Amino acid sequence: MSRALVTAFEPYDVWEENASWLTLVELTKDLPERPHLTTRRYPVDYTKLRECLSKDLAMGFDFVLHLGQAPGSCGIRLETVGLNQASHTTTSNSDKCVRLIDDGPMAYQSRVPATALRDELRAAGIPAEVSTHAGTYLCNAALYLAHHAIASGSLTTKALFVHLPLDVSQAAKHEKEIASLPASVSAEAVRIILSRLAEG
C-alpha cells in the first residue's frame, strides 16, 4: 500500500487556529482506505520546518501533501511551484526575501497532476484552482524544501501544497466579512486528492 505524509501548520500571527490543522483533524474522523497516512503539525519556523521535513521524508513516503491556510481564499488552491525565496512576513515582498537554499535551483515544479485533481474536486462540487505561486512564507518553504530534499536524496516521493480557505469558525471571529469554507468540506477535498494519488 502506498504511504503519504500529510502536514498542517500551527497557528500564527493573529490566527488562534489554523485552517490546515482544523482540516487535518476533520480528515482523521473519516480516513481514506488508501494511502496509509502519517500526519504532522509543523511549527511556523523556517529552521524547525526544515528539520522536521528532513526527518520525515527520510521515512520514505510515496506522497507528501502539505496543507496551509490562505485567508481570503474562496476555494482550494493546488500550489504547483515552490520558489527558492523566503520572507519573514506573511505578505510577499521580494525586496526583503532571501534564498531558502543558497545553491538550490530557483524553483521546483510539482509532478502531481494538479489540473486533473482540480477537475476532480470541481466535479465533486468543491471550488478549486491550480496556482503557481504559494507566496514566499512558510507555505512556499514547505513545498520548496520538500522538493529539494526529494531531489537531493534521489527520492521518488511526489509533493504538493494545498492552500485552504479559513474555516467558518475562524471567519465568524474576524472583524470583517471574509471568505471561508467548512473544514469538513476542505477535509473532503483532501480525501479526494489522497484517494486519486493512491490510484496512481
- Order of the strands making up the biggest sheet: 2-1-3-8-4-7
Count of beta strands: 8
Helix content: 25-40%
What name is given to the CATH topology? Aminopeptidase
Please state the second-level CATH architecture. 3-Layer(aba) Sandwich
Q: What is the mean predicted local confidence, pLDDT? A: 94
How many distinct folded domains? 1
Globular, elongated, flat, extended or rod-shaped: what is the shape? Answer: globular
Can you describe what's shown?
Helices cover 34% and strands 21% of the residues. It has 200 residues and is of the alpha/beta class. The protein has a single domain (3-199), classed as Peptidase C15, pyroglutamyl peptidase I-like (Aminopeptidase). Helix 2 runs parallel beside helix 4 (138-152).
SSE topology sketch:
Layout: E1 3-9, H1 19-27, E2 36-42, H2 46-57, E3 63-69, E4 76-79, E5 81-83, E6 107-109, H3 114-123, E7 128-131, H4 138-152, E8 158-164, H5 168-173, H6 183-199
Parallel strand pairs: 1-2, 1-3, 3-8, 4-7
Antiparallel strand pairs: 4-8, 5-6
Helix pairs in contact: 1-6, 2-4
List keywords for this structure.
8 strands, Aminopeptidase, 200 residues, 21% strand, six-stranded mixed beta sheet, globular, 6 helices, single chain, alpha/beta
